[in-house]
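Researcher: Here's a chain I'd like modeled. Treat it as a single chain, no partners, no ligands.
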Amino acid sequence: MKRLFSHIDSTVLTMAGLRLLSASIELTAAILMLIFNDVKKAVTINSLLAIVGPVIFIVTMTIGIFHIADQLSYAKLLFIGLGVFFILFGIYK
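Model: Modeled as a single isolated chain. Structure tokens:
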């Protein structure tokens, strides 16, 4: 297994792993909604997903930005930060 992932950058592997974790959580939530078969419980489960999604997004972006930070100018890092801020602002407002 170690040989399989040896040619993949560890940062990319971590980011992809977080996305797989997020997908697993989403799939589990969908299955739970079907099992419970209740709108109130489905809304509750969906509200929990509203927390998980942005957290995974922020952590994944942070890992990626830290890895490429030395290759970018401060202005580009500022624009990336502003972009992330606007995405989160759009989600929550």
